## 1
Amino acid sequence: MTKPFAIAIHGGAGTILRDQMTQTLKQEIVAALTQSVQAGAKILEAGGDALDAAVAAVKVMEDSAHFNAGKGSVLTHEEMVEMDASVMHGAAMDAGAVAGIRHIRNPIELARDVMRNSDHVLLIGEGAEKFAFERQYEYTEQDYFFTERRYDQLLSMKEKGLFALSESKYPDDKKYGTVGAVALDSHGNLAAATSTGGVTNKKYGRVGDTAIIGAGTFAENGNVAVSTTGMGEYFIRKTVAGDVAARMRYLKEDVHTACETVIQGELKTMGGEGGLIAVDAQGDVHFAMNSSGMYRASVDSRGELTVKIYADE
């Protein structure tokens, strides 16, 4: 008997406004989410590993200008792109992460290589890129990542002296633009992958929850895989992904209860806006958010494809 597989993805959570979302933009975002989740599902259908499926899904979003990761990353105060990413495989709870990446097209692939081909979990900045180039990664100029939309956002934030978005020109300007994927493969492996460009106008080499195992990414076979998106500093302080897994492990909560308790509980009370995606050992998928929307999609254990944007869908 074939064991079930499932995959879920997110393209960021936050304030996503219907009245500013054009039909054309919505169609483009839905198409990108669909392409992403199907890229991962194709690997799972062929009997592939959960982590490879999650990475393939995230890579599609890194290659799209619609998401704050890879090509669509926001700009730092110095008008640079600095990206973070992490992965975790649930079988042996192996993990890899990178932070402050400037010249690698797909940081999620580099995070997987850190897990598989180094003795470390987290590499940063120049050291991470040196590791990448030793593994024959292509050097990518900053021009590749530059988009007018992100430059406009940066100028707006600089004028206000902010590093978060206080008013919206685009329907998702107040969205925390992490992307991620969680997967269960037919061998029972759980895995998670998360990638981001961080926050607009960030300074001092700021790193959010995406690169932090247990905060933005977590996977444990027989339990759950989690990828988060939101206000990174809060998600680090509440170790959100690890907290969901712990509630399921020790309190025996189901994936739905654990996710909602964490996202709607103390995290929300302390001001932490955002969401997460999770899949348990049976292929049960859950999306949780305390914001007005989250770009998300899944192919569940029955093979059904779902794509949604707003919280009330």
Note: The chain has one domain: 6-310.
## 2
Amino acid sequence: MTGTVERTEAGGLLKEWRGRRRLSQLELSLRAGVSARHLSFVETGRSRPGRDMVLRLAECLDVPLRERNRLLLAAGYAPVFAERPLDDAEMDPVREVVRRVLAGHDPYPAVVVDRDWTLVEANTGVALLLEGVDPDLLAPPVNVLRVGLHPRGMAPAVANLDQWRAHLLHRLRLQADWTGDAGLDGLYRELASYPGADPGPPRGTPPLAVPLRLRRNGAELSFLSTVATFGTPLDVTVSELVIESFFPADDATARALGAPRTPA
């Protein structure tokens, strides 16, 4: 009886992921190199997928490593992806890479966050972004999206708050939908309840990317952000780390942060 429940649950989870990726059984079967009939039997629990089959389908569906472990457990197999805390000795190389990246990005702000947008590490440049933020929002664990959009966070200093808010909410909505993470869905609902409005269609020449325009000491600083992740991770924790780096979007901001002028 237990095996039947596990097989049905595994098949149901695979079906959920297939639906989330908007793939038909035929499309997924072609990607995975299995028959649509066999895939149908797996999803309904009539056939038990082998360990390799679970991993192959999860790979084709781009399922996060954390959820691949869950699929394996539901099918009756042991997880294959380790999940080590970041302070584990085996994670020393990861921490070293993160710290080198953060230090190398100074004086520009950069942060490392986990899958819940909880702050893991930051460089000294981040202090510029956090000026005036309520200390309660900076008490660990710090959620960087909450800090960015909360009325007692960075929001009052963001000159293009409606535009920046729409960008962050859209990004979070996509992440929640892609990962199926209920926690991210709850975070989205919380942040969407904060004051703000739809920025509407862009006027004039649309920007190449949405900047963060920050009021500081009577001036306006403008930043563009980039996101980096670890390539081909085999550890759940590593796969969920994101490094977000902010670069000056104009020469005035670069000068204000003590950086050389961008070459022509």
Note: The chain has two domains: 2-74, 89-256.
## 3
Amino acid sequence: MTDFQPIQLIPPVAHAAPDAEDTARADLYGLLATLLYRAPDAALLHHIAANRAHGEDAATPLGDAWNDLCDAASVTTAEQASDEYQQLFVGVGKPEVLLYGSYYQTGFLNERPLVALRDDLARYGLVRQDNVSETEDHIATLCEVMRFLVAGEDAGVSNLAEQQHFFSRHLQSWVETLCDSAAAHPQACLYARVAALLKAFMAVEAIALEMH
């Protein structure tokens, strides 16, 4: 079975995804996983700021949300990003914005949705590492699993049917609530834009996966 980590569950893949659209989807899932697992460093902030969408891509809700994040990244230091991440998602005691699916689905942590999630991860051959403190229903982990299902090389697991199943079962019902909570936090600046990008991307994914 594959060692399970919130980030870099699978190595970056350039050719496993069957087309450019899936490659872009996998890359965005991977970026969101990284941003939601830890604050970005200076290099990642610079990379985001330097890759604005242009033309038709910029004229969509997803492109608009991406460019808003680019603008925020261009004026945010790594120290500011770290402070904001700590304020929103770590804090002292209970975080001000929780990143765990079970909480949004049931009102509590470590509830029945986590059991169902672990069943699917086991079916995919994914095992959480002992040194990972976050439970598997962390939003970063779920984004990374979606990247795996989009861009992995094992067609028996990484296929459209499993993407549809995992998205509808473990993300679709609650992720918009998380995004709204993060965006509405008075201390959210960079992460208000991350939340808006996640929300826009999830809306696109919901439509695209239902159409197939």
Note: The longest helix spans residues 190-211.
